[in-house]
Amino acid sequence: MATTKAPDAGRRSDRSRRAIHDAALALVTEQGYRRTTIEGIAARAGVGKQTIYRWWPSKAAVLMDAFLDLAGRTAEDAGGDPQPDGAASSGGSAPGFPDTGDLAADLKTVLRATVDELNNPVLEAVTRALTAEGIVDAKLGAEFVQQLLDPQLALYVTRLRAAQEAGHVRAEVDPRIALELLIGPLMHRWLLRTLPLTHAYADEVVDCAVGGLAPRA
Q1: Alpha-carbon distance 43 to 24, whole Å?
Q2: Cα angle vertex 53, ends 48, 54, to 5°?
Q3: 79 — pLDDT class (breaks 50, 70, 90)
Q4: Distance between CA atoms of residues 143 and 96, nearest Å
Q5: SS3 state of residue 5
């Protein structure tokens, strides 16, 4: 008598998680964060809502997990490093951030990748939803910073400190303030849609910032 192979619970679990991720991202894109519900996600994914609550404590947690997974998959599909910035590693730099010895060129590489990510229609709606909701929901905002932004910002700090050691950035410059001079203008233009967010704009931001960070004669 032939034996029946038992279902692969792990594979079924992975399929369910992916279905939930895809459902959460689709609903937020279609109707916004506030109108998206656990019940709606469950219905779209074809699972019971208790399945969602077994893995995540809240809608925000579902979306955060889904977004991090999507960002990683998008970077991998593009052939890059799965770091959110998508920049390739080289030399002795931290993973995800180049260090060719030319600070301006390295920053332009990373900021151009950031521009591409912010303009990516697959990521844009969810990024905007999480950013906007994080402003009014302090807990979600803290999770967004801790899980998504802090790992990226740490790469900037590492690269800027290397530039200080090489004499390309003044020793008294605070790397955290310096990175905000780079990222802040991009986020301002993207969030408020004041003007198009382009590679040329990213390059100009780098040139202005690096000029201000360089040692003074």
Answers
A1: 10
A2: 95
A3: low
A4: 21
A5: coil
